[in-house]
Amino acid sequence: MTSDDPFDDPRWQRAETMAAARGKPNQRFIGCSLWWFKRVLPITRGKNDLAIALAVYRLRIVQHSRVVTVSNAYLAGLGIDRYAKYRSLRRLANAGLFVIKRHNKRALEIEFLPKRNRHK
Questions:
Q1: Which domain holds residue 38?
Q2: DSSP assignment string, 62-120
Q3: Residue 9 lies in a domain
Q4: How many folded domains does the chain comprise?
Q5: What is the CATH number of the domain that holds 112?
Q6: Exposure winner among 27, 35, 50, 107, fewest CB in 10 A?
Q7: Over the stretch 55-78, which tens digit does the pLDDT of each residue have?
Q8: C-alpha distances in Å from residue 3, one per residue of 6, 16, 105
Q9: In a domain, 55, yes or no
Q10: Residues 101-114: pLDDT tens digits?
Q11: Do the beta carbons of residue 72 and residue 107 sit within 8 Å?
């Protein structure tokens, strides 16, 4: 008697075994790299700061660039207004994580500093 369940197929069972053999996911990444999280956590003063730090790091990873543009609209989708954005980015920049560049009234540009140039 054969089963009607397609997941009983031996190919699915082999695939599950192979996926389990690959090991656990990288435990040094929690939405951002662990070193970034450890670096920004003591600097942040609330949920907005932490959300902004994670959002700009995400932009860096997604765009594969050390320089990213952070618009008010991007953070408004997270419920963060432009004033909170300015305060948080200034605090993170003062900690030596990146440099903020402003070009007239356009969105802020963030340039991440290499690890060796960051302040402790």
A1: 34-117
A2: HHT-SEEEE-HHHHHTTT--HHHHHHHHHHHHHTTSEEEE--TTSPEEEEEPPGGGS--
A3: no
A4: 1
A5: 1.10.10.10
A6: 27
A7: 999 999 989 999 999 999 988 888
A8: 8, 18, 65
A9: yes
A10: 988 888 899 999 88
A11: yes
In the chain, the amino acid numbered 80 is I
Q: Is residue 64 part of a domain?
A: yes
- Does the residue 94 lie in any domain? yes
HSE of 55, CA atoms in CB hemisphere, 13 A: 21
Q: Report pLDDT for 31.
A: 74
- Whether 49 and 43 have beta carbons less than 8 Å apart is answered as yes
Using a cut of 0.85, tell me whether the model's pTM lies above it: no
Question: Hunting for tokens 């939405």 — which residue is that?
Answer: 31
Output phi, psi for 108, to 5 deg. Answer: -65, 145
